Amino acid sequence: MPAKETKSFKQHLKEIAHILEWFDSQEELDVEEALLKVQEAAKLIRASRERLQEVENEFKIIKKEIEG
């Protein structure tokens, strides 16, 4: 097992959903905290894109193996 376990795409989406819920629940937005939330969401989105690319590459490899 790798030393650093990566989060799944599903976990990233859940965390992004929590951030969106936080924004929706705010009556008065704390600009500093909002900035931190946006930065966190951006990091999660980048990680999600990277994971999707990895999965796509894995599917391509499997397809090549099957097609022989």
- Which overall shape is indicated by the principal axes computed on the Cα atoms? rod-shaped
The ordered string of helix (H) and strand (E) elements is: HH
Low-confidence stretches: none
Residue share in helices?
over 70%
Topology:
Blueprint: H1 9-25, H2 31-67
Describe the structure.
The protein has 68 residues and is an all-alpha fold. It has one domain. It contains two helices and no strands. The chain has helices at residues 9-25, 31-67. Helix 1 (9-25) packs antiparallel against helix 2. The longest helix has 37 residues, at 31-67. The protein is rod-shaped, with a radius of gyration of 17 Å. The two termini are 29 Å apart. The mean pLDDT is 90.
Would you kindly provide a brief summary of this structure?
The chain is mainly alpha-helical and 68 residues long. Helix content is 79%, strand content 0%.
Descriptors for this entry?
68 residues, mainly alpha, 79% helix, 0% strand, rod-shaped
